[in-house]
Amino acid sequence: MYRWLLLILLVMLAGLQYRLWLGEANLRQVWQLEQQIQEQQQLNQQLIERNKRLEAEVRNLKQGFAALEERARSEMGMIREGESFFQLIEPEPETP
């Protein structure tokens, strides 16, 4: 009687171990999913930081004319009224 009970419990334990290690949604897959979650959370954090920087830049451009003027000067080559623009051209090296 006890042998049958012990045998049944061992078979059940083996079945549970099979599902745990080799069955659907096994531990290896759970570990891989946890790793993917961590990687995605790191990527999300980087994107959140980038978005904060972009929001600050947009806010600065909307409110501050200094940032707008700086961007117009550096990216578009614009100058103020009454200023003179000088462009220095490097001489090309002489080739023998």
Short structural description:
The protein is mostly helical and 96 residues long. It starts with a helix and ends in a 20-residue tail after the last helix.
Written overview of the protein:
The chain is 72% helix and 0% strand. By secondary structure, the protein is mainly α. It has a domain at 26-70. α2 (27-63) crosses α3. It starts with a helix and ends in a 20-residue tail after the last helix. The model has no long low-confidence stretch (mean pLDDT 84). It is a single-pass type II membrane protein.
Separation of the first and last Cα atoms: 105 Å
Strand content: under 5%
Globular, elongated, flat, extended or rod-shaped: what is the shape? Answer: elongated
Number of strands: 0
Q: Could you report the average pLDDT, rounded to the nearest whole number?
A: 84
Query: Largest sheet, described in full?
Result: none
Radius of gyration: 34 Å
List the helices and strands in order.
HHH
| Proportion of helical residues | over 70%
> By helix and strand content, what is the structural category?
mainly alpha
Q: With helices defined by DSSP (H or I, 4 residues minimum), what is the helix count?
A: 3
Low-confidence segments, given as residue ranges, are none
Organism: Marinobacterium halophilum
Subcellular location: Cell inner membrane
Pfam families: DivIC
Subunit structure: Part of a complex composed of FtsB, FtsL and FtsQ.
